[in-house]
Design brief:
The complex is a heterodimer of chains A (about 575) and B (about 325).
Chain A (H helix, E strand, L loop, with lengths): L1 E8 L3 H10 L5 E5 L15 E2 L10 H11 L6 H20 L14 E2 L9 E2 L5 H15 L4 E5 L1 E9 L2 E9 L5 E11 L20 H8 L4 E2 L4 E8 L9 H4 L3 E3 L20 H13 L11 E4 L5 H7 L1 H11 L8 E10 L3 E2 L5 E3 L6 E7 L4 E2 L11 H23 L7 H17 L6 H15 L6 H18 L13 H25 L17 H4 L1 E7 L5 E7 L13
Parallel strand pairs in A: 1-2, 1-9, 2-6, 9-17, 15-18
Antiparallel strand pairs in A: 3-5, 4-5, 7-8, 8-9, 10-19, 11-14, 12-13, 13-14, 16-17, 19-20
Helix pairs in contact in A: 1-4, 1-10, 2-3, 3-10, 12-13, 12-14, 13-14
Chain B lengths: L3 E7 L9 E7 L7 H11 L19 E4 L2 E4 L13 E5 L6 E3 L2 E2 L2 H9 L20 H11 L6 H5 L1 H5 L6 H11 L7 H8 L13 H5 L6 H14 L6 H14 L10 E2 L3 H7 L4 H16 L9 E2 L3 H19 L1
Parallel strand pairs in B: 1-5
Antiparallel strand pairs in B: 1-2, 3-4, 3-5, 6-7, 8-9
Classes of the chains: A alpha/beta (about 575), B alpha+beta (about 325).
Bound molecules: flavin-adenine dinucleotide (FAD), iron/sulfur cluster (2 copies) and FE2/S2 (inorganic) cluster.
Chain lengths: ~575, ~325
């Protein structure tokens, strides 16, 4: 058994930022299934929001208002206030740690427009902002290499949770296949999002909600899982992201008739309305026969009028992506796009100090923390504004570090039954390896992803959700007989993929269950049969957990409203 | 469409004494990347096939492998374009211990990054409330290096690493350039001094493999050239590498009569001049390198040859001379 004061699972922005806060002060370990520099944070393109006021007047208060409104009033306003207040200092700190930001004429961090933000607030590094931030933290981890133990390419299997406290994690060393326990006084999850269950998705293969599911399996609740953001500009059929920066820099959205259709949906903000609104507008255009292409099933993002120079300077990466994946150079041609599953608003319920809640009443799990996309604090409510999630991960990673430091100083390692927790984890793997197997994981995965994109996507209906739910049950049944050919121990990626699929099958049902129950439309959750927001009945967060028989149980918890009462959301 | 042959290197230490190529057949779906194809093979033909991947959009750096002999990101390669005579050969990256199939041990690679102190050392005597100002031009100097995604493609194909595993390698040097040229860094001179030691910037032979393989703008060879320029600017020349450049300048520039002026580059002379004519130990220490290069077929021709584009090289030296004069003022 390995022992540390703190174990952090996840080496994206949230995990690494927390580790930095703790390095040198306590014994901290970081576990990640990929090398830290390969965490999905690195794929973020457009920017990170902070009211630096470099390009125009701006203030944290205004940033807070935009975020609350963008969240369709489901965001918890106390947490949003903290995030927007801490944003400038957190980003300034990242700059001092060495982050390579694009600069304005005065040498300050450059800022650009982004959807739903009323001011140019997105600090950026060309169109690879997440990469710049992630690599800055990764560089710092070399500085503190003596103070942080890295378990790179170790896979989280289970959270050790007992009698109200978290005591460590069960992990697998992918290089050897050995299962080990890391015993700790405090555990932080920064394990990222769950967008991988969709066929059209911008997410990395790694975004399979592992941390969220380890939490759920331990018997803890998850919050607002039905809220999945669909980004308006995923590359046609690939889902690969064309950053919102494309529109922030002035790109147009065109339908099959080459009309700027956003005029009909959000006259004042046009292409820069929040993502839920733009994605629905696109889907409506497609559904009503105004899509582009032979099947009329896509939209164009048109950058040609920006000119070669601006594209090369501000949007080099997305130009390259369209060239590599569709063979289209956006300097000369519009790019075919469609809405793509992008961000997980839901996740592990946590306080504004990142302490995980174990129920809807706000009881805290001792020694368990969550930050970044896997958490639901909830600063994004029903719809996240672009550039607010890199901010969320960085601000709350930092806060989690501080809050854990406070906690561990007086805390103990609570007892762990090593043999028992290992046996449980081992059994889950052995069941996959040695039960009679006839089902193909590939088929199950493809059917899952198709179901989620078709029925649990931009628009949802009662019947569609019911169909999806039934299908999910069937797929879960088939998964018990899934075939894993690779019985080897060394770097067995087939077993990892099977574990990831099992996670996807479980949380997808939570998304569906939450969506079936929520008979309103709010932010990213759009019910065709309940098209209006219902503040009387639904100003509340969903809390989903498994009951004693493993069935899904839904409870609810009120939204924290401090400064801004719900109003109609117009752009 | 006809099926394409995928010749994929397989190795499982529990079973195999050495890697071998296994043939798979797959019809390449329209627009599929090489990673899409390898995934299809794993998911529909052989679940034991092992490789790394994550982002599938050329930003995480996980999926580098040798495609027809050269390191590439599988997710950034259109499969159809990689077919040669109906086949694609896929092997693990080079210069790294093999773990399984296409997965190599990356610790030596990441250790190389660690050696260059890969983090900003700002002037922390100053209190700050706001960001440090940096001009757009200064940002441009570090932008290219900052795009590195740590995919190790350059490391895989670097020729010097093949003969001298102590060499810092292209990615670490590119990373180093990012700090040497960062207007906010406070240790520029120390960094250059460290990078000027053996195994550092002067050990690169300009083979350009790294710049050719690099999927981003990091292009290490160019960053290494910038490091060398910095070394000259800071007059950190008391080392073999810098002396080599001075010798090269004499040789190419024709300053030393009889040793190959007029555009003749005497590669056998340059190394000896670089370690110093009177440095016997140094000269002897070159022998193993020479032998190793001969073994690998990389030894320079015994007779001086006229180097390509001598005009450009001369122009470079002219500029370099002007630069030095400028600097002495
Ligand atoms: C294509 C794309 C573009 C985006 N662009 C922007 C943008 O411009 N602005 C913005 O604000 N947001 C953007 N986002 C969202 C933002 O990038 C993410 O929300 C944020 O980076 C999440 O950071 P994180 O630290 O929470 O998780 P991640 O960076 O996803 O890291 C998760 C970590 O958990 C580890 N992990 C997961 N499961 C396991 C396991 N089982 N065992 C061990 N380790 C595990 C992983 O290895 C990884 O280190 C974008 C997202 C995508 C997909
Ligand atoms: S140019 Fe230098 S660093 Fe790059 S591959 Fe060749 S020898 Fe290695
Ligand atoms: S320099 Fe280029 S090839 Fe080398 S690791 Fe970085 S991105 Fe990859
Ligand atoms: S999978 Fe990330 S670079 Fe290819």
């Amino acid at each position: 058994m390995r022992k540390h004061d703190v174990v952090i699972v996840g080496a994206g922005l949230a995990g690494l930022r927390a580790a930095l806060e703790l390095a040198g002060k306590v014994d901290v370990a970081v576990v990640s299934k990929v090398y830290p520099s390969r965490s999905h944070s690195g794929a973020a393109q457009g920017g990170v929001a902070a009211a630096m006021a470099n390009e125009s007047d701006d203030s944290p208060e205004l940033h807070m208002y935009d975020t609350v409104k963008g969240s369709d009033y489901l965001g918890d306003q106390d947490a949003i206030e903290i995030m927007t207040r801490d944003a400038p200092i957190t980003i300034t700190e990242m700059e001092h740690l060495g982050c390579v930001f694009s600069r304005d004429g005065e040498g300050r961090i450059a800022q650009r427009e982004f959807g739903g933000h009323s001011k140019p607030r997105a600090c950026y590094a060309a169109d690879r902002t997440g990469h710049a931030l992630l690599h800055t933290l990764y560089e710092q981890s070399f500085k503190y290499k003596k103070d942080i133990t890295f378990y790179n390419e170790w896979y989280l299997l289970d959270l050790i949770y007992q009698d109200g406290s978290a005591r460590g994690v069960v992990v697998m060393d992918m290089k050897t296949g050995d299962i080990e326990v890391i015993h700790a006084k405090a555990v932080l999850f920064g394990t990222g999002g769950y967008g991988r269950a969709y066929k059209i998705t911008s997410n990395a293969f790694a975004n399979t909600g592992d941390g969220i599911m380890a939490t759920y399996r331990a018997g803890l609740p998850l919050e607002d899982m039905e809220f999945v953001q669909f980004h308006p500009t995923g590359l046609y059929q690939q889902g690969i992201l064309m950053s919102e920066a494309a529109r922030g820099e002035g790109g147009y959205l065109l339908n099959g008739n080459m009309e700027r259709f956003m005029e009909r949906y959000a006259k004042s903000r046009m292409e820069l309305a929040p993502r839920d609104i733009v994605s629905r507008a696109e889907q409506t255009e497609i559904n009503e026969g105004r899509g582009a292409g032979p099947k009329k099933d896509f939209i164009y993002v048109d950058l040609r009028h920006l000119g070669r120079e601006k594209i090369l300077e501000k949007l080099p990466q997305i130009r390259q992506l369209a060239i590599d994946f569709l063979g289209i150079d956006c300097i000369d041609h519009p790019i075919p796009i469609q809405p793509t599953a992008h961000y997980s608003m839901g996740g592990i319920p946590a306080s504004k100090d990142c302490e995980v809640y174990r129920d809807e009443k706000g009881t805290i799990v001792k020694g368990f923390y969550a930050a970044g996309e896997c958490s639901c604090i909830s600063v994004h409510g029903a719809n996240r504004l672009g550039t607010n999630s890199l901010l969320d991960a960085t601000v709350f990673g930092r806060r989690a570090g501080k809050s854990i430091l406070n906690y561990v100083v007086g805390a103990q390692h609570e007892p762990v039954n090593e043999a028992e927790v290992k046996r449980k984890a081992r059994k889950r793997i052995d069941d996959l390896l040695y039960t009679p197997s006839t089902e193909s994981a590939n088929d199950i995965r493809n059917e899952l992803k198709g179901t989620m994109t078709n029925h649990v996507g931009v628009y949802r209906t009662k019947d569609g959700l019911a169909t999806a739910h039934k299908k999910l049950k069937e797929l879960q049944g088939r998964f018990t007989k899934v075939r894993v050919e690779d019985k080897g121990k060394v770097f067995n990626t087939e077993i990892i993929e099977a574990l990831e699929l099992s996670n996807m099958l479980t949380y997808s049902e939570l998304i569906i269950a939450g969506a079936e129950a929520r008979t309103e439309s709010r932010g990213a959750h759009a019910r065709v049969d309940f098209p209006k927001r219902d503040d009387v009945n639904w100003m509340k967060h969903t809390m989903a957990s498994a009951d004693a028989d493993g069935a899904i149980q839904l409870k609810y918890k009120p939204v924290v409203v401090t400064k801004h009462q719900p109003e109609e959301r117009k752009y | 469409m006809a099926k394409t042959k995928f010749l994929v290197s397989r190795y499982n230490a529990a079973r195999d004494t050495k890697p071998y190529l296994q043939e798979f057949k797959l019809e390449i779906p329209q627009g599929a990347t090489l990673l899409d194809c390898i995934n299809l093979i794993k998911w529909t033909q052989d679940g034991t096939l092992t490789y790394r991947m994550s982002c599938r959009s050329a930003i995480c750096g996980s999926c580098s492998m040798k495609v027809n002999g050269h390191a590439r990101l599988a997710c950034k390669t259109q499969a159809a374009e990689a077919v040669i005579d109906g086949a694609i050969t896929i092997e693990p990256m080079g210069n790294s211990p093999l773990i399984r199939d296409l997965v190599v041990d990356l610790e030596p690679f990441f250790d190389s990054i660690d050696r260059v102190k890969p983090f900003l050392v700002p002037d922390d005597s100053k209190q700050w409330k706001r960001e440090t100002l940096q001009s757009h031009d200064d940002y441009r100097k570090i932008e290219d290096a900052s795009t590195c995604i740590m995919c190790a493609s350059c490391w895989s194909d670097c020729n010097v690493l093949g003969v001298d595993p102590r060499f810092l390698g292209p990615a670490a040097l590119a990373k180093a350039q990012r700090f040497v040229y960062d207007s906010r860094d406070n240790e520029t001179r120390d960094r250059i001094e460290f990078l000027s030691r053996t195994t550092g910037m002067w050990d690169c032979t300009h083979c350009a493999e790294c710049a050719t393989r690099c999927p981003t703008d990091a292009k290490p060879l160019f960053r290494i050239k910038e490091l060398r320029t910095a070394a000259m600017t800071y007059k950190i020349t008391d080392n073999n590498g810098a002396r080599h450049v001075l010798a090269f300048r004499e040789s190419v520039g024709g300053f030393l009569p009889g040793v190959g002026g007029g555009g003749l580059l005497n590669e056998n002379y340059v190394p000896i001049r670089s370690v110093g004519f009177f440095n016997l130990d140094g000269i002897l220490s070159l022998i193993p390198v020479g032998i190793r290069m001969i073994i690998r077929g990389k030894n320079p021709p015994i007779l001086p040859h006229i180097i390509d584009k001598i005009g450009e090289v001369r122009a470079m030296f002219r500029r370099f001379n002007d630069y030095r004069k400028e600097y002495r003022k």
